[in-house]
Structure of phosphoenolpyruvate--protein phosphotransferase:
Amino acid sequence: MSNKTVELIAPLSGLFVPIEAVPDPVFSQKMVGDGVSIDPTSNVLQAPAAGKITQLASTFHALTLTTIDGLQILLHIGLDTVMLKGEGFRPLVKEGDTVTVGQPLIEFNESVIAAHGKSSMTEIVIANGDMVASLQPARGFAHAGKTVALTVTLVGDFAAAETTAAPAGNISDAIRVPNPTGLHARPAAVVANTAKTFKSDIKLVRGGEEANAKSVVSIMGLEVQNNDEIQIKATGVDAAEAIKALVELIRSGSGEDCGAAASPTAAPKPVAVPRPAPKAHSEDPNVLLGVSASPGLAVGQIFQVRQEVIEVREAGDNPQLERRRLEDALKEARQQLEGLKAEISDASKAEIFSAHQELLADPELLDLALSAVSAGKSAPFAWKQAFTTYADKLARLKNELLAGRANDIRDIGRRVLRLLTGVKEAALEVPDNAILIAEELTPSDTASLDRNKVLGFATTGGGATSHVAILARSLNIPAICGIEEAVLELANGTNVILDGTKGSLRKNPSEAEIQDIRARQATLAKKRDEELAAAGQAAITTDGVHIEVVANIGGLEDAQQSVTLGGEGVGLLRSEFLYLERTDAPTEEEQTKIYGDIAKALGTERTLVIRTLDVGGDKPLPYLPMPAEENPFLGVRGIRLCLAAPEILRTQVRGILRAAPYSKLHIMFPMIASLEEVREAKKIVAEERAALGVTADVKVGIMVEVPSTAVMSEIFAREVDFFSIGTNDLTQYTLAMDRGHPKLAKQADALHPGVLRLIAMTVKGAHAHGKWVGVCGGIASDPLAVPVLLGIGVDELSVSVPAIPAIKAMVRKLNKAECQKLATEVLQMGTVAEVRARLSGLVD
């Protein structure tokens, strides 16, 4: 029989801290007992289990809860808080009370505790350790009343009493890894995220080596290659379930399409481990060779980029203070990465920064840093030591894909280090027509390049599979990686021609070559200047049809910029920026202010379309815990989540409605798939509007992102004031292709005839009832798509802010009648290739 296992739930929200790291020897040396600590972000202590309050300190800072199994759980709020003599503590129970799981026990004022120089770090300790066979503390972030804090296996008579507990430890049979390039970053992330849904301690075993299955870095460090055999080892209450799920996941390719290789009956085929090719050398002394990272041609002057050195102090202050500094820096880094994601129009490329956010939460990386902090090191020193150790470990790997991710570790590492030290990222004073040269550029560097000045770049490190190369291609910046190191000796201002397609850099080009390329550049620059100069003009076709060109924005700064670039309003305000990367929901007052500020920036003559919260299984909120979903894109997200948590929606609607006096306000609901959803959401708006006494004309519309809504558009048009088509999701759901999938993303093309037909169906249904239709997905900003969208009958184009002048200029050159003929022709085509071939000749 297995011993009985008891799960104790987190009594507070906050970061789990190993009991050994608590800066008080009474707890760290386990004089009271073993357990775990929480650095709290909430202030109401909850019961971790059902039981009886057998002791309550007279100063109300601690109590003992005895469970029905006889476990004595000491809950101690703060360190040395007994000295406060009860100040800042309010008991919600008394000795002898019987309590249930999650019941509030003590409320405390963290400000009072901090004002007296005390720590609010709270300990959960098993006082009668003789009952405990084993104890597994949790790691990461705790959600009060939700997260398991301690998994305790009991001894004695309990062994016979419990017959259903999972075995304490299991190991799977050998699994052959089918992924052609092994468990590199993407499949490693899939495995780690799945492992995190289980409570057990889970390891990947290869030969005599083990890796933490919940750590992306640890998995990559195991360097699992194609056809390697690995095992899954798990210890804990759900070990068997964890092993079964991970075995199936890895055999299926861990989210990658491995073809026949994923079949258990397929004969294994040896796959060569990717290795960086030896750097080529040109016979021409004026040519330096590397690897093509991003195609394109540029002529400009060399500008050498040198990486700054950030000095850190080794000795730390109080470990609790250093830990808080690290936590604050990590939180701010996540927010910065969220901002970078919003700036990348290609969703699959923006996911690079989602991967960076995952690395910031990597348990092994955090444990390494926190251990050093507990040993007396400063937060900057501990963090720098942790991320450089991991980056160096990855860089030494044989697999080029995995070794290339060392650059990502250094990128997030330096981001956090700058925040810890207060060293601002050095602003590059890049000259015009610059060709950047560096040993390495990070994804963050690449995403923030000034495209008005930087024409291309070359690095001596990296390769075509690096995230820097991927970003360069998405930003259309010609780039070379792995170029000869002699490039670092070129003087600033040296004229060169960079050929990203061939992977070559030519020094000392002839004047004729330079003039030819510069002439082409000048033509494009003149065109951009003309578009910007005319940005304030309306987008009216040559036959007199006005198309409203508005902006997709993610905050106040975007709104202000859109006005300066000629935007006629906002077609999509993504309100998620108010909700993400925080531990509690934004208040009504916070939302009222930001929506009001954005509305005022636009003015009463411009439209403001605010999309209600669009998060869910793929973008979870820490303060709205949800179970893990096998396919979050088909799960509880968008309006489904908001209707399941109506108070969040009601609070947002009230905040939005208060912006009504300042602009032409529109409320838009995402992920609508049924009339019932629309009616329920509209009912909430009507109730809140009546309660607030809002009399302004506030329009209510929906996103068209799923095929059912497009097919039923005429019926939906009877219920709403407008439609906005989100072509990114509509394409994904129409073609059943994940737009972030490594192999299918290119096929998930919004110019697919099936998607265009659904757009046409939406427009026809809406216009039948006099309702307008906008497009706010990626193709609204695509010059190739604009003529056919106009021809289909779209009334509004909501585009990325920088694209506003160019799209308006393009509309002014088009003839609506001719576009209608084009659309009729295109809608009869059968393939994306045919559509693109027909449209490509229309764009200069």
Remarks:
- Confidence is low (pLDDT under 50) at residues 157-168, 260-279.
- The first strand starts at residue 5 and ends at 9.
- Residues 5-161 form a domain with the Glucose Permease (Domain IIA) fold (CATH 2.70.70.10).
- DSSP finds 28 helices and 35 strands in the chain.
